[in-house]
Structures are given as C-alpha cells and as structure tokens.
Amino acid sequence: MNRPEPAVAIYVFKGLRSTKGQKYSHPAACHDELLWIGAEVLRDTLSRNGVDVGYTGPATVNRNKVILVSITAAREWWQFIRERVRWPDGKYTVIVGGAGLTNIEPFLPYFDCAVWGRAESFICELVGQAIDGKRYRNANLCWADEYDPGATYRFSQAESVYPRTLVVGGKSKRKQKWIERAIGCRSKCAFCLYSWTHNPVIPAGESGQFNTICREGTFWTIDYADPPRVTAIDGVSERIRLTIGKPITNEMLTEGLARLSSESPYRGRIKLFNIVRYPSEKQDDYRELAECFNRADGDLPRGRKALGVELSNTPLIPEPCTPLACAEVCANQYAQGHIAALLRQYSEHPGQTKYHYFSGQRLWAIETGGTPSLASIVLEVIALRAKREDAELIRRIACSTRFWNAPRPRQWVTLRAEAQAERFCRRYYWDELPTANLLGVVPRRVLEEKAEQIFARLFA
Ligand code: SF4
After folding, report:
1. DSSP 186
2. Reduced to 3 states, what is the DSSP secondary structure of residue 373?
3. Ligand 1 interacting residues, C-beta cut-off 6 A
4. In this structure, are 204 and 297 located in the same domain?
5. Mean pLDDT, range 75-83, rounded to an integer
6. CATH number for the domain including 80?
7. CA 97/CA 40 separation, integer angstroms
8. Which of 11, 194, 277, 408 is the most buried (most CB within 10 A)?
C-alpha cells in the first residue's frame, strides 16, 4: 500500500544543481546535498510536534497541503517564478521564507504567506492552521492578499540557539553534524544582512563570529596554528574596510599574510572573500591592497613553499535593513579578471596570466572564478528593489526562455533595454525602498544615522 503524502513538504527547485553540475532526479536527494539548514530546523521542529514533512518538486506540489519554499538569496526569486507559473493547480498554501527573503512586493502573486527571520517558535501554529484552511498572524509574516506597504513588518528573532544537533547533507559526501553555536554577529559590517536582522545570541565561550558550518573565520581572530581556509577582507583598502565596520588595517593584512605563509602548518591556499565597488572606491584603493602583498612577500625569508591567496570578488549588493541599503550599485561592465587587472598595475611581481596578479617569492595571488556577471548582480538588485508595479516586468523576464539561454552580456543588454536596469542601481532615498518598513534588529532611524555617518566618511 502506498504511504500517504505528508501534508507539508519542502519545495526543491527543479533547476538547482549540485556542485558537480549534475541534476537531481529526486527532490530529497537535492535537498540533502544543498544543506539548507534553516529549512532543516523547521522540518525538525515540525516533525517533533507530530507533523510529517516531505519534499516536493514542481510536478508534485498539488499532493501536499502546505509547501514551504526557502529563498536563500534574492536572486532565487527569478527561478522560483519560472517554476511557480507551471505548478499544477491545487488547494495548497505556499509559505516562503529563508535567509534571502526581504522584499516581497513584486512577488505577491506567487505565494500565500511570507515569513521573515527565524520561524521555529511559530511554525507549528502557522502550518497547523494552514492545514485547516485558517490563517495564523503576527508581525513577522504577511499574507500576500493582506500586504500593506504602510504596515511595519519585522524579522522574527530566536531567543536561543537551536537546541538539537541536526545531520545535514544526509545522502552526500558533505554529510555533517550541525550544531548551532551562536546567532548573529557582534561585528555588524555595514553590508551584512545577517547581522542586521539577527539579534546576537552568543552563549558563553563562543565568539559569535563563526559560521558554524563552513569554518569561515574573521581575519582578526585567526589562529595561526590552525587557520581557517576561508576568510574575508570585504574591502580593498583600509579606508573602506574601517568605514564599513571591518576593522582590518593594512598592517594587520600584511602581517596576517606573512604569518599565514611562514607560521601556519597549512601552506597551501587561503580564500579571501572580498567586496568591491563601494561608493567612492578609486584606483588608489586597489594600490593599497597590492602594496600589502608587496610588503608581506618582501618581509618573508625565501625558500619555503609559497602560500596561494585566492581573492573572490563580489560587487556590493545593497541589502535591505542594512546601512548600505540605499547605496548606488556600480552598473559598469564587470567581469572576472577586471579586479586582477587593477591589482596587477601596482604589483611588484605580476603573475603571468589574466587572473594571476601577484607572483612573489613566498606568496602568489589570483582572482578566483565565479565572479558574478553584471547581469546576475543587476537581477539580484532588481529583486531587492522592485515594487508591485514592476511585477509584470519581472514575470516577463523570469519566464523568457530566450533571456535565460542568452549569454550574460546579452542578458545585460536586454535588462537595460527592457527593464531600464540602471534605475534600480542608482542611490535611493529610504522612503523609496519597498523594504523601508521591514525592520531588522534596529529601528530605521538608527540605520539612517549609521548610513549618514558611513557615506560622510566614504566621501570625506
Ligand atoms: S560579514 Fe561576517 S564579521 Fe561582518 S557582521 Fe557579517 S557575519 Fe559578522
């Protein structure tokens, strides 16, 4: 006898692929590989309260009563719409949430309820009522047909770390135990959606500056005896880093690179995540970063194995609820190799290839692949800043096979012509943002004051 379908299912996007590029035939396998921890916390919470939760894909959504959709980044809306318009009809309630859920205005036709922030404290009530055809309400969620642009919505906060150990990636090689060590971050970098929307819950003995699953450490807490393989600088110059709240001076960076090369037992590669294209950024900012490499390499004794630095550059995305929410987005053509070219100009030992901009005695550095294209960045910015009146435009682009099959530069041309993409990239006023009334952990007045200070320092 066939087991009945669970009333609740986590939606797995059809088009998501594993890191190896193969498509998954079964939603559960895809989910396991993707390590969606937030969705896993909700699944665990519901299961412990007697609600069976399964997985579903676009062809089977009508077998469940409640579909949970995780939007992990704003750019996923495009794919969601592409799939959502083809879902079979049925009596199901679509609940969207996830780490990337902020702006909902142009996406109202595609879901029933949106939930901001941590939902484990009310998910059982919300889902239970939805199964019975009723509506649970609080300030952390919005029913699409009741959306009010004048109302205030808030990110839900967790009171404590999740008390149970979860196993994520169950069917993959990346299977691992997940224990939540802390929530939020004391640093509050100006671009960081996570820290401005999560109240810190940092138990004694935890630093609160670690991603619990990736071992991504902050540059100023590096243990050189056991260094992280991934960390972030998030700004090319000291001026920018200190202004946006990333306290890494040039001296710290130079010393850190030298020590990673000479002291650490691990002398392979380190990946540095970086954010570029802040307002006011200039050539001189790139000169500073190149000079840190020049100095770090010059201070090192010769003859030992070199440390490789992979610099991963992402342009600033003005996330809502952060002090940089209104920032202008650089809408010039942007491609991998561009930042390497800027750095090579000031490098004392430029590398041989397009992406290899430093090749010293003890250090070498490249710009890594995976740099998002200008079209990808602008698609994300549109998802963050579009309004209800842009819904038809978004639907047209999302459902255009021609657009998604086109090369990235062609997509950018289309976005400029059809969406006047630059209008989403300009500097905004707070009241113009569709997320102006969405609150993270501080009132909007505090964000505005912080933003004023940051912009005054950037342009001083
Ligand atoms: S970017 Fe990292 S260090 Fe900065 S606030 Fe966010 S989590 Fe903390």
Report:
1. S
2. coil
3. 185, 187-189, 192, 194-195, 209, 218
4. yes
5. 94
6. 3.40.50
7. 13
8. 11
